[in-house]
Amino acid sequence: MGGDHAPRIVIEGAHIARGQFPSARFIVFGDETQIRPIVAEYAGLADVLEIRHTPDRVTAEDKPGQVLRTGRNSSMRLAIDAVAKGEADCVVSAGNTGALMAMAKFSLKVMPGIHRPAIATFLPTRIAGKGTVLLDLGANAECDPYNLLEFAVLGGVFSRETFGIAQPQIGILNIGSEAMKGSELVKESAELLSKAKLPGIYKGFAEGDDIGTGAFDVIVTDGFTGNVTLKTIEGTARLIKGMVKEALKSSWMVKLGLLLALPGLLLCYRPMKTFSKRIDPRYYNGASLLGLKGLCIKSHGGTDGIGFSNAIGVAAGLTANKFNAKVEAELQRLGADALRPAAAAEAPARLAGEEG
Amino acid sequence: MGGDHAPRIVIEGAHIARGQFPSARFIVFGDETQIRPIVAEYAGLADVLEIRHTPDRVTAEDKPGQVLRTGRNSSMRLAIDAVAKGEADCVVSAGNTGALMAMAKFSLKVMPGIHRPAIATFLPTRIAGKGTVLLDLGANAECDPYNLLEFAVLGGVFSRETFGIAQPQIGILNIGSEAMKGSELVKESAELLSKAKLPGIYKGFAEGDDIGTGAFDVIVTDGFTGNVTLKTIEGTARLIKGMVKEALKSSWMVKLGLLLALPGLLLCYRPMKTFSKRIDPRYYNGASLLGLKGLCIKSHGGTDGIGFSNAIGVAAGLTANKFNAKVEAELQRLGADALRPAAAAEAPARLAGEEG
Question: Chain A: nearest CA to B59, how far in angstroms?
């Protein structure tokens, strides 16, 4: 198992998730001698958690193409295979993203009707309890309009099933809201989406600053723009947090001031806690690789037990909502060739990073 | 003159900027009957500010192609023409971006050696006083590698002249730092930039979360990605600010707590003020349209007098540093054909939004 702090965060995450999802069962793949003592720290966890020993693992440096050939006994591959075989409902990994995508696609296979799987996540908005689904976040660096149409279907079902929104408002990320603005890709995609029968309503172009307002339930974009956007959001939040910390550390006068302010600030504890939870990236951890025949969730590599438990939560949610069955039903409703007519056949699908 | 709150913010901005740049002189184009009474509110401003009356103006809805034909007497066009004629050193506008770009390009002309002008701005980083220059922010929705090379030259000189960095670290925005990651555009651009003689050092790929760290002095990208990135930064900052406000308004208990905390918080006033200035978008207002024979600064349409004065500050800085002469010297040093060999001639340059 991967991630910067594995296996501890994985076991801790399972322990925390168990509180929220009492019926969840876990199969953990990795080095048993490392995993068993950590599991023993949590009373009762061993009853719901099976360890499958495998010494092989995928490292952060491994190239996707290479692990496809040589990583057949890695913990990542065996975990994915468990989903392919029906032993598990969903795989959750904090390991190498490129390797996870390549192996998941190879082992789980792409859904009929979908040509490119996409990575999706939900992002916080001004409206409490409402997230905007953004995809693709980097599975496909280059896309054509039919890819964006598929993303709209996947994202629409994701929004409906996860947030209970009957008719998600779907947008295409662009550099302006007027029809004439943007690249050829977004203009052609807009034409396609405005005519398609979507699981939701095509609302038009969304701009970068529309992501946090909640005006759109789903925003689709190519994997290049989506990845840059996601990392820009993370970087901006980190920058502001760092600036606040720096300001509060700057002098003895400030420290004295904060000490004097403490009793008053304690009365503000609850909303401040709610606020810090709303912008804490751990609570948005767990990006979903959508469009495969099995469910696969990617956790941030640098997260902790709380973060990993949230990725497990995303997995539990998609499983409970029968996400894949809902997408299949949606594709059937649209008709087999709806998303990509034979005339618009694309080059063989490639996952970003597969070149290695 | 344009912008949501013109002409007041323009006059106010000139008044504020005058404090910082005592030798600055202003020519204001617009409706004299509106402008004159506002100028009269500021003692002595009339001595350094000339009003040129013109009733015609470009609106936010006007299409760039249309104003090129019909807007010859608009305040925006006459202001740009004043730079073209050498009556002014730089034009600053809070009006319609597409119209400003189209008219500036038409009237000021592109510099020899540059094929596409780019919009650049500097963004705050963790390192106080150090900004990262990001370009293109939307002038060119679709780019080829030679465009990114030109942006690297423009951005490198911008960073050197504005921040005094002798060897700016230049990066290409991408979805990973490894060479195999990303779109064809960034891979080919990386090859080109790593071989070129730049006004700085090509450091490699930058990711979205590298923008705020200060690890790069210049980050180049196509105008589509750059525009989405800039607006995502603005949207994220606004989202966090909104969430803090909401948390602090949430109950009487919080209001009481803040009241009790007030004396202590007053001791923290200075660093909190510094912090809020560091993330205040008004202090980053003023995007530069680089690569034209004259200087042109675009202010945010929705800014206030302080924001507009900062856009004037950017104009004053580029003028004082003889930015265009420095770029010309740099292009000469690189050799006439350095940025785009004849074999790689591109389709005629188009500005985004020019279609209308």
Answer: 15
Q: Return residues 5-24 of A near B (CB < 8 Å).
A: none
Mutate to test the interface with A, among B211, B222, B224, B259 (most CBs of A within 10 A): B224
Distance from C-alpha of A57 to C-alpha of A30, rounded to nearest angstrom? 8
Token pair listed for B80: 């740009």
Whichever domain contains A72, its CATH number is 3.40.718.10
Q: Is residue A41 a part of any domain in this protein?
A: yes
Report yes or no: A258 at the B interface, CB cutoff 8 Å: yes
Residues of B in contact with A181 (CB under 8 A): 141, 352-353
CB atoms within 10 A of CB B244: 17
- The rounded distance, in Å, linking the Cα atoms of A102 and A80 is 11
Q: Enter the ipTM.
A: 0.89
Q: How many CA atoms lie within 13 A of A16 on its CB side?
A: 17
Instruction: Count structural domains, chain B.
Output: 1
For the record, the structure tokens of A161 come out as: 């099933």
**Integer Cα distance of A36 and A221 in angstroms:** 42
Of B212, B256, B353, the CB nearest to A235: B212
Answer yes or no: is B205 within a domain.
no
User: In this predicted model, what pLDDT tens digit does every residue of A27-66 receive, in sequence order?
Assistant: 999 999 999 999 999 999 999 999 999 989 999 889 988 9
pLDDT digits (tens, 9 = 90+) for B323-343: 999 999 998 888 756 677 766
Gyration radius from chain A CA atoms: 21
* Chain B residues 195-234 within an 8 A CB cutoff of chain A: 207-213, 221, 223-225, 227-234
Q: Which of B229, B260, B279 has the CB atom closest to A228's CB atom? A: B229
Contact B311, B13 (CB under 8 A): yes
Give backbone dihedrals phi and psi of A299, rounded to 5 degrees, phi first: -90, 150
Is residue B272 in a domain?
Answer: no
Which residues does chain A have within 8 Å of residue B235's beta carbon, measured at their own beta carbons?
A: 208-213
Which residues, numbered 112 to 151 in chain B, qualify as contacts with chain A under a Cβ-Cβ cut-off of 8 Å?
124-126, 138, 141-142
* Strands A90-93 vs A218-220: parallel, antiparallel or unpaired: unpaired
What is the domain range of residue A305? 1-109+292-321
A289 and A77 Cβ atoms separated by less than 8 Å: no
Residue bearing tokens 């092989």: A56
Give how far B62 is from chain A: nearest CA, Å.
12
Query: Touching check for B102 and chain A: CB below 8 Å?
Result: no
Q: What is the pLDDT of residues B95-114, one digit of tens each?
A: 999 999 999 999 999 998 89
- In 3D space, the residue among B236, B182, B230, B239 whose CA is nearest the CA of residue B205 turns out to be B182
Q: Are B162 and B295 in contact (CB under 8 A)?
A: no
The residue of chain A with its CA nearest to that of B249 is: A271
The closest alpha carbon to A193, from A131, A223, A148, belongs to: A148
- Put simply, the chain B residues between 59 and 88 with a CB less than 8 A from any chain A CB are 63
Name beta bridge partners: A131: A124
Give the pLDDT mean for B119-131.
90
- Residue B79 resides in a domain: yes
How far does Cα B144 stand from its chain's mean position? 22
Helix (H) and strand (E) counts in chain B: 13, 10
Residues 6 or more apart whose CB falls under 8 angstroms from that of B127 comprise B214
Residue B275 has pLDDT above 60, yes or no: yes
Sign of CA dihedral B96, B97, B98, B99: positive
Token digits for B75?
A: 């305040």
Backbone φ, ψ for residue B120 (5° rounding): -125, 150
Cα(A271)–Cα(A95) distance, rounded to whole angstroms? 34
